Amino acid sequence: MFSYCSHGSFYMVEPRLLPKLLAMIALFASLSPGAATAAMKVTREFRSGAWAIGVYADENTGAFMFCIGASPDRRDVVMSVALDPSYRWGLVFSADRWLLSRTMDIPVRVRIDTGPWFDTNAIVMTRRSVYVPVSQDNDLLELFRHGQRLQLYDGGNLYFDLSGTRQLMSDLAACVAAEVAKQAPAASSSVAPQAAASAAAGPTAKAKNEERQITSGSGIFISDLGHVLTNNHVVERCAKIHVRRNADAEAPATIIARDTTNDLALLVSDLHVEAKEVAIFRGSAPVRAGESIAVYGFPLPGALSSSGNIVSGDVTALAGLGDDARYFQISAPIQPGNSGGPLLDFSGLVIGIVNAKLNGIAVAEATGDLPQNVNFAIKESVITSFLEAHSVAYESRAPANKLDLPGVAERAQQFTALVVCVP
Questions:
Q1: CA distances from 200 to 94, 98, 192, 195, 204 (A)
Q2: Is 412 a member of any domain?
Q3: Do 286 and 156 reside in the same domain of the chain?
């Protein structure tokens, strides 16, 4: 495979040579405008199991560009996995013996285990490295995370061991999240002079009004790396975001991914919880209409309890308005501030995220009747697809011991966060 214009003997890759290979790999950065010609530097290196991860930044500006993990395979061709700040991933293959033409695009097929073939072109980035575009399709990502072997075919076969890719993708996502969070203060500093000038002029009526518009919602800690899941509408107009859990002090948070279609947002915060305290999803166990559920969150902060509130109800329908299959309809009452909080079964497992309530006044005006407790939550399947698309690991398991409502509340308190939005 990729034998075009190549010569020389097989080259066994030693760990000390991985930075050199990764430096070549980084040239695949044409995913970002102008990055193909950017000088790259390694700012940090660490390991994910047997995979070697390097953090790459623009040599001139210091701006973060990629986290790249090199395969532990001891062979002449090295496979690496790269994740950029937008959480797009791709594969790069490098070999010291290759002498490739930059004008080549090489038709290849990619297969994971016995799954379907994916047809694509390998793009020559340097004379010794190629970039293989990878679909951002969730199904392919899931195959990669759980697969045993990747097969690459261009008339010949190359096989790559996928052991440890689940942890690798999680560590790459955490790596990107950490680097993006580091860049956030630098990004905000570019508007500091303008903000200072406005402050010097004294508070305007608009500024005073905006101060009064601080809003909040709820969120769910889904990893011990500070990842918090919430609704996009909770954080979409925030200049600053803070999170806290129960009586913990508030900590800053940064948005690292959004899904505006499904109203989801992923934050990374400076507040970390223990691994045993993160939310656990219910997994493949189906939710039934009529099943008892609970909602936990921080509704009406400042008016209601600062330690969180729990209410119970039922799943009244397995679809939302207009039979939208992304949602559950629930009878548990919700208030402003519940958005982004967990919908739980009575094993304390997360089956959804609270999203919206029916506008009672609008319905009453249209029908003459006031609806009672018609609320909606985004299903777990939509949430986990979002997390997988951004390579964020999460826990799931089947329901086990049934808890009473206080027991569910105690479990929810461990991973539910108040999310404060400062406009």
A1: 55, 61, 12, 9, 11
A2: yes
A3: no
- Indicate if 303 and 154 belong to the same structural domain: no
State the Cα–Cα distance between residues 11 and 275, nearest whole angstrom.
41
Residue 33 maps to which CATH number? 2.60.40.1880
Q: Each residue of 97-154: pLDDT tens digit?
A: 888 776 667 888 888 888 888 888 888 877 888 888 776 665 677 778 778 888 888 7
State yes or no: pLDDT of 38 exceeds 60.
no
The mean per-residue pLDDT over the stretch 5-26 comes to 34
Query: Nearest-CA neighbor of 383 among 266, 245, 252?
Result: 266
Residue at 326 is within a domain: yes
**Would 253 be classed as within a structural domain?**
no
Total domains in the chain come to 2
Torsion of CA 175, 181, 187, 191, to 10 degrees: 170
Same domain, 164 and 295: no
Q: Is 113 left (phi over 0), alpha (psi -120 to 50) or beta?
A: left
How does pLDDT run across 179-193, given as a tens digit for each residue? 877 765 433 333 232
The residue segments making up the domain with residue 313 are 275-422
Please check whether residues 165 and 289 belong to one and the same domain: no
Domain boundary among 147, 180, 213: 180
Domain boundary among 180, 203, 218: 180
pTM flag (> 0.90): no
The full 3-state SS of the chain, as one line of letters, equals CCCCCCCCCCCCCCHHHHHHHHHHHHHHHHHCCCHHHCCEEEEEEEEECCEEEEEEEECCCCCEEEEEEECCCCCCEEEEEEECCCCCEEEEEEECCCCCCCCCEEEEEEEECCCCCEEEEEEEEECCEEEECCCCCHHHHHHHHHCCEEEEECCCEEEEECCCHHHHHHHHHHHHHHHHHHHHHHHHHCCHHHHHHHHHCCCCHHHHHHHCCCEEEEEEECCCCCEEEECHHHHCCCCEEEEECCCCCCEEEEEEEEECCCCEEEEEECCCCCHHHCCEECCCCCCCCCCEEEEEECCCECCECCCCEEEEEEEEECCCHHHCCCEEEECCCCCCCCCCCEEECCCCCEEEEEEEECCHHHHHHHHCCCCCCCEEEEEHHHHHHHHHHCCCCCEECCCCCCCCHHHHHHHHHHHEEEEEEEC
Contact 48, 167 (CB under 8 A): yes
